[in-house]
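#structure-requests
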Amino acid sequence: MTTHHKWTVNDIPDQTGKIVLITGANSGLGYETALALAGKGAQVIMACRSLAKGNEARQHVRAQFPDASVEVMQLDLGSLTSVRQFAKTFTDRYNRLDMLINNAGIMAPPRQETVDGFEAQFGINHLGHFALTGLLIETITQTPASRIVNISSSAQYMGKINFNDLQHTRSYSRYLVYSQSKLANVLFTFELQRRLEQAGFDTISVVTHPGFSSTHLQINTANATGSKLERFTYGVMMPSVAQSQAQGALPQLYAATVPGVKGGEHFGPDGFLQMRGYPTRHRAARAAYNEADAKKLWEVSERLTGVEYTILRRSREMVS
């Protein structure tokens, strides 16, 4: 673990001229990230499933930073059609992307499926972002010193990729499946970094987790299950243990903006059990360093989404 000073949003360098895309930017960590980067001069695109909620969040950002450049675009990560439509609209409109922050996610709902038939946590948290990143990778890699920041969770440390039942049709444990999706985020980050390096690009792929932060994820989980126990547990734990969502957003802001961050690094809070605190570099889950699993997950993800990172393969062949 590497310890840094108590880094806050005040330490973010000026972001004027940078184009930033944040998924799930209408609430929680995504909103805090959009707010901070807009305040530092970045041109922020808030990619949200609900345009109404996105526009409301945009109004809150503009209320604090009236001159901020903030745009809302509709994106449903649970639909590959929506992901493709979003990517086309974005690339038609923009020819650069300095930061892609893959922040959106769901946590531990009862088993449900995306419109494409994927188990929802794996489909939204991993496959949706895998597809989005792949469809934007040419624009990203053409942007000097660009960064891809994936948001995982400390649940990764309990995660296991069940290649025999990725969609968990045979058995479903809400939190184990969530852990699988969060481990997948880290495996994807590390494999993407290896492929970017092999292809000779200076784009970096970094992963973070927010510790235990008070966002809408927990209450959404409790509401989705109707569990009185979960409502009680989160009601007791959140005020006494969790840090604010603004504090929870610091690791992804650090990874996205601090000079000297290297591809393949993993950041989280510096406090006890990485639950709260200021951004610092940590080792990810041991399973995240299994390169064979990372390669297999990549190949499965390409097959399931139909999105291939052609430019990385083409550039790798040219280098070799």
